[in-house]
Amino acid sequence: xxxxxxxxxxxxxxxxxxxxxxxxxxxxxxxxxxxxxxxxxxxxxxxxxxxxxxxxxxxxxxxxxxxxxxxxxxxxxxxxxxxxxxxxxxxxxxxxxxxxxxxxxxxxxxxxxxxxxxxxxxxxxxxxxxxxxxxxxxxxxxxxxxxxxxxxxxxxxxxxxxxxxxxxxxxxxxxxxxxxxxxxxxxxxxxxxxxxxxxxxxxxxxxxxxxxxxxxxxxxxxxxxxxxxxxxxxxxxxxxxxxxxxxxxxxxxxxxxxxxxxxxxxxxxxxxxxxxxxxxxxxxxxxxxxxxxxxxxxxxxxxxxxxxxxxxxxxxxxxxxxxxxxxxxxxxxxxxxxxxxxxxxxxxxxxxxxxxxxxxxxxxxxxxxxxxxxxxxxxxxxxxxxxxxxxxxxxxx
Amino acid sequence: xxxxxxxxxxxxxxxxxxxxxxxxxxxxxxxxxxxxxxxxxxxxxxxxxxxxxxxxxxxxxxxxxxxxxxxxxxxxxxxxxxxxxxxxxxxxxxxxxxxxxxxxxxxxxxxxxxxxxxxxxxxxxxxxxxxxxxxxxxxxxxxxxxxxxxxxxxxxxxxxxxxxxxxxxxxxxxxxxxxxxxxxxxxxxxxxxxxxxxxxxxxxxxxxxxxxxxxxxxxxxxxxxxxxxxxxxxxxxxxxxxxxxxxxxxxxxxxxxxxxxxxxxxxxxxxxxxxxxxxxxxxxxxxxxxxxxx
Amino acid sequence: xxxxxxxxxxxxxxxxxxxxxxxxxxxxxxxxxxxxxxxxxxxxxxxxxxxxxxxxxxxxxxxxxxx
Lengths: 397, 294, 67
Known about the structure:
The complex is a heterotrimer.
Chain A: H1 5-14, E1 22-25, H2 31-38, E2 42-47, E3 59-62, H3 65-78, E4 87-92, E5 96-107, E6 112-119, H4 124-130, E7 134-138, H5 146-153, H6 159-178, E8 181-192, E9 197-199, E10 203-206, H7 215-220, H8 235-244, E11 251-257, E12 262-267, H9 269-281, E13 288-293, H10 298-309, E14 316-321, H11 329-342, E15 352-355, H12 361-370, E16 375-376, H13 382-396
Chain B: E1 10-14, H1 24-31, E2 34-39, E3 47-48, E4 51-54, H2 57-64, E5 68-71, H3 75-87, E6 92-95, H4 102-114, E7 118-120, E8 126-129, E9 133-136, H5 143-146, E10 149-156, H6 159-171, E11 176-181, H7 192-201, E12 207-212, H8 218-229, E13 233-238, H9 265-274, E14 278-280, H10 286-293
Parallel strand pairs in B: 1-2, 1-5, 2-4, 5-6, 6-7, 10-11, 10-12, 12-13, 13-14
Antiparallel strand pairs in B: 3-4, 8-9, 8-11
Helix pairs in contact in B: 3-4, 7-8, 8-9
Chain C: E1 5-9, H1 19-23, E2 29-32, E3 35-38, H2 51-55, E4 61-65
């Protein structure tokens, strides 16, 4: 779960990390009040969860009230890159001498957290590709201590600045661990002409799998739960999420909506990816991506089916999974058929294909036969089933 | 020779009486796995389908012996369970549990590694050495339908695709030596590069099939290793090529997300090809390709 | 009556027993003033685990496949 910059800075402050004086403005009417508090010149930054703000004009040096109003009006009224903004953070402009990148994240190959540092903030991916990033793997039981960070920064800094940045890294790690973060970046970390460090930006992501145990902290810092996608979730996706949360038995969700006419009820994870690829490869147009797995309740599968079929223009349904080990075929069949019946669809007449082999398949096939549904067994691949439904729809067109 | 485990491996099931374990213990026994004990703190003294249950791993290992364990406990208890197994001297731990907080995962992996224990997972369906043993739930109630013994190793980021790939191989008369689901999470204890050296050494394994996905760097590391050190044939199949076109969007597994030019299947496929691997577009091509190389 | 499974409680069900209510893992049975009845919304969740049949002292339960 990604935090807004202003939320991250709240945490930075709490952990004693140096943050420029700042004021969050959440409404257009409060712009001038905020401006007065900080004083000009200041830096105005739109608060959104997407990266790349700076390049897209979401960060600006503001010299007077006029400029502030102009900047604020634009983004409060139009949003930023099509998304509404949470607010605008006004910060005292800093006298920048140098910029750095400092961050902590997980190194999946080393299976550890790592501290990353580079000179020059902003385009860290480019810098990473060029190989100029300093990296320190962190032993979880030793943690990140001063004696380690001082050694790490010794070639880059000396004297007071060495001690300060070492301490910043130590505090950042403490925050990272205590908040169950999977990423905590200060980009850029600024050294002013007066040789003081400031965290000019904050990017923090909290582990989705730790949100339950972070409930207290999130409440304490007034950070609401959110689910952020690259784009706003559609109504279908929101409803699908609610269905998946009806109970804790298995998964029937992870829906991403697309613009096609074939409703997909697919699973497990890797198979869903494989089936989606196959439908596209044969020239079909998927209406959605989804995943079922972990033996979901009949009710969840039913409701998911109903939801996916409620989308306009659905011309066919593909129920395709890998050979199922811990999900029962007959229960999936029950759920899908109940969903179709609830939508007034006759499964024996509507273009449907099942390719759901695995546990309890004999029972499942009995059900499919009773309802006149075309099905494939484990002797045919998922791709064959995908091709079947795409061809069927082409014929019916 | 199966890698990691065989018919003599004594297995303890952690969380045996829990909802998550369900019918897995009986199925493992029925398959011939040497399930010697189960552990659920507080339920010591019971028997679960004939398997003695203990309160602690130490006691279970003391009374019954134990080489490997399968962890099927709720997410916030998983780290403790794994560390307890390591403390009790278990050298191979399969973690089925998913949604374990990542800092817990990092701690348990570090703890295990420091003490010479191998962790597979989390979010792993387990491993199976056909006709030898099964740790986890691959193949469900009838693994013998999909899995048969033979010369091909399979490593997969997806549990379901383990069985799906084994199934198509078996249907075509090609058996499997060991099949491992490494798990769908971004941070897991065992990745392709941890297993390839074992397969390289295993005389019975003549070729490998990898199921790969977009996101992360596991495949890149594998391609590099294969290029330098792996002499057996590698067939690679990717699910989710479409994800390349939708950077920033996550599909299914927590690890399936790309950024422009980073973690894309296109990039991974390029590296595998330059390492001499055969990358198929449709997994139904795999048996034919294998028949030509075996 | 479910679409796929019907659970039938026969007349010889003993009032106040409720063992089936306690044992069913998918909550098919519910108690209404000491009388057991089928929660029809959950009928199609029946997995044929047969635990209810095993615990019923009166043999008062019937599980019927509707396919």
